[in-house]
Every structure is written in C-alpha cells, then in structure tokens.
Amino acid sequence: MSKPRAEVVFSSDVGNMDEWARRTRIPLTTADALGATYARAHRWLQALRQQLIHQYHWRDASPSDPRMLFSLETSSIWRSSVGLPAGPTLRLQLPVHASSFFSPERRVQWQMVFHSDIFESVRKICPPINDILSLVQCLLTGLVTLVFEENLPEGLHRTTRGLPPVSWVNANEAPLIEIFGPAHYKALRKACGDTQTAFKLEVVHRR
C-alpha cells in the first residue's frame, strides 16, 4: 500500500470554483467583486514578500513585470554533494489583478508557479509561502487546492482540500476581517472548521 501523495493543484476552471462555493456556502461573487477583494489583500501579500526577502533570502526577479504584484526568485533548496544548488532557480509570481489567474494565455504560467517545488516542498519549511497559499485559498477558493492521493485495495482515494486549516484562519483573524469583513470572515472560519466542507473525497474504483 502506497503512502498518501500530496500535491498543490492550480485550476482556473470557474465551474470548479462554483462547486467549492456551493460546498462552503460562500457564494461565488462577480469578477469585479473578487478582484476588489484580491486588491485589498495586496498589502498583506506585499508584507509576505518583504518577509521572503529579508528573512528567507529571496530576491526581486529582473526585469520587473508591471503586470505582476511581485516576482521573486531564489535558488533551489536542494543541494549537490559539494553544496551547490541541485535544481533550477525557483520563481514566485503573483499578479496585480486576480483576473490574470483566469486568462487562458497565462494558465501555463500559473501552473508553473503553483505546481513548482515552491509549493511542493518550500512551503513546508517557509511560513510566508504557506501563508500565500492559505490566503489565495481564502480569496479564490478552488483555484489552488491540496490534493492527497492514496492507493487502497478498493481504488484510488483522492482527498482535495480547498481551504486552509481553521487554526490558520483564527491566527490571522485581524487581517482577514480587514480584507473580507466580519460576516464573510465568520462564514470562512465556519467552513474551514468543517471537515465535510473544507475537504472533498473522491474514490476512483478499480475496474
């Protein structure tokens, strides 16, 4: 029996986000409203950028792209036997406008960001990366999910987590209320604390 395998999955499918909206009972609002909420999160995201630069040795990537809220890079966390980076340079980007996540021309770009080792491995040892993932899950639920797969005798069990742990939501109450407002925050906290809501289980039966 194989161990559960976890990966971060980016999907700009609006139908998928609508399914998560029904699951969480937090309605999927208009594109303009989502964009405005994302814009209110800019200050927090920029603070996380500063943490990455000053505490975790990330640097601004060049040339700068005006379409990006920020673009950072760092060397691979993996090292060769002689201590040199054993992987490609990691690049973390987030857009100025949330609509960029849904642009077909940029789908591969965002897959490369969220499917990279940044969110696979670095987030486990770098709290600001995990904060970015959790915040994006709150802002655009269903856009970025954590998927755990486990092969069991009856088939493949796929568990998808669409929201961060309620402990993270509680720990960040003040900035989340500033972004979402008290009513939305309460709904978010309730959804994150409900396993049936925050997780989706699928079983792919063997033929």
Characterise the protein shown here.
By secondary structure, this protein is an alpha+beta fold. The protein has one domain. Helices cover about 45% and strands about 20% of the residues. The protein is built from ten helices and seven strands. The strands form two sheets. A four-stranded antiparallel beta sheet has the order 1-5-6-7. Strands 2-3-4 form a three-stranded antiparallel beta sheet. Helix 3 packs antiparallel against helix 6 and helix 8 packs across helix 9. The protein is globular. The model has no long low-confidence stretch (mean pLDDT about 90).
Strand count: 7
Q: How big a fraction of the residues is strand?
A: 15-25%
Structural class: alpha+beta
The total of helices stands at 10
The residue-averaged pLDDT reads: 90
Strand order of the largest sheet: 1-5-6-7
Sheet of most strands: 4 strands, antiparallel
What's the N-to-C terminus distance? 18 Å
Rg, Å, rounded: 18 Å
Q: Segments where pLDDT lies below 50 for 5+ residues? A: none
- Give, in order, the helices and strands: EHHHEEEHHHEEHHHHE
Overall geometric form: globular
Helix content: 40-55%
Total discrete domains: 1
SSE blueprint and pairings:
Blueprint (H helix, E strand, L loop, with lengths): L4 E6 L3 H11 L6 H10 L1 H15 L2 E2 L7 E7 L15 E6 L11 H8 L2 H4 L6 H13 L4 E9 L2 E7 L4 H6 L1 H8 L1 H11 L2 H4 E7 L2
Antiparallel strand pairs: 1-5, 2-3, 3-4, 5-6, 6-7
